[in-house]
Amino acid sequence: MRIVFRVSPLILLAASYLFAAMDGTVVNRTSGQPQAGVQITLVKPGQQGMQTLGTTVSDAQGHFLFEKDQPGGGPQLLQAAYKGVNYNKLMTPNIPTSNVELDVYDVVKTPAVASITEQMMLFEPNASQIAVSETVVIKNTSNTTYNNESLGGLRFYLPPAANGQVRINAQGPQGMPLPRAAEKTEENDVFKVDFAIKPGETQFQVDYVLPAGTPFTFHGRAVNVKGMSSAGPMRLLAPVGVKLDGKDIQNVGTEPKTQVTIYNLTAADLFSLDISGTGSLRTPDPTTADDSDEPQVVEGQPRIYEHMTWLIALALSILAVGLVFLFRSSPVRSPYGK
C-alpha cells in the first residue's frame, strides 16, 4: 500500500519564511553610486525593546545580506550608520526583502543647505501655569545631510522660569519622533539640539511649562542656527479663550477649523507679550472629566502604561504635525503661502 502525503502550499510558504533572507544595496544618493563600508544593523521592535537580528557591512559594490530575518512577524528596521549619521528604513511585512535599497547621503557642516519653513509657538495657560509648545519645521532641499555638532540642528530660547526643564522630540523624514537632549550654548538661556538634518523635512517639538497667573508677561527671544535661513516670521498661536497683546506681535486672523488666533512675531530678536485668559487645544472631554481633587483608586494599570511616555510623545508630535498641515492650508497663513 502506498501512502501519499500532500503538503499544503501555505505550509511550504511558511517554511520558506523561516529561512528567508534579506539583501539589498546601500546607495549614496549624493553621488548616485553604491556605497561600500557602511555598517548596517537589522533590528526588530518588541515588548522588550529593540532586538538586534544581525549586523553586517556593505561590500565594495554596496551589497549587504542578512541570511535570516523574521518576515511576517511584524515590522523590522534597517539601520545604516554613515559618516556619523544614522539612516533608517522600515520594513513592514508587505515589503519585499530582496533587492532592498537603503539610502545614505554625504555630510556637510554648513547649515545653508537647510531653511526653516514653519515656526510656531503655542501658548496654553491655565490658572497656575502656561504650557508652551514650539514647533519648528526645517527643510533640506539638497542631496546632502547637514550635521554640525557644534552648531546643532536647532537652537531655541528657554526662559529662565522653566528652570531648565524642557522636553524635545525630533522627527526626521519618514521617521518616528525621537527624544533628544537640550545642550547649553555660549549664549545665556539659548540651547541647541544635536540632530542631523537630512534631505526632506525634519520637525522639532519643544515643550516646557512656566509658572504663571492671569494676566502674565512672557519674555522670549527669536534665535536660529547661524547661517540657516527662515522662510517667514514665527507664528504665535492662542487657543479659544486666550489673548495675546504686545507691540512685537501682529494679529493676522483666526484658523477656521480650530479657531486658534494667529499672530506674527514682528521682532527680530527679543520680544515680550501679555497673555490673558485660559484655554487649550487639549481640553479634556467634559463627559468624562472628574471635578474631584481626590486621587482615583484603581486595581492595576494595563501594560500599555509601560509605554505611556512614548505614546504621549507620539501623540504630541501628531498634534504638532496636524497643526502644521492646518496652517499650511489656512487662508491666513501668508507669507508661507507665497
Summed up:
The protein is mainly beta and 338 residues long. It is built from two helices and 25 strands. The chain is elongated, with a radius of gyration of 24 Å.
What does this structure look like?
- The chain is mostly beta strands and 338 residues long.
- The protein has 2 domains: 96 residues, Carboxypeptidase-like, regulatory domain (Immunoglobulin-like, Sandwich); 200 residues, Immunoglobulin-like.
- 9% of the residues lie in helices and 42% in strands.
- It has 2 helices and 25 strands.
- Strands 10, 11, 14, 15, 18, 20, 21, 23 and 24 form a 9-stranded mixed beta sheet that branches. Strands 1, 2, 5 and 8 form a 4-stranded mixed beta sheet that branches. Strands 4-3-6-7 form a 4-stranded antiparallel beta sheet, with no helix packed on it.
- Strand 16 and strand 17 form a beta hairpin.
- The longest helix is centred in the last third of the chain and has 22 residues.
- The chain is elongated, with a radius of gyration of 24 Å.
- The C terminus is likely disordered.
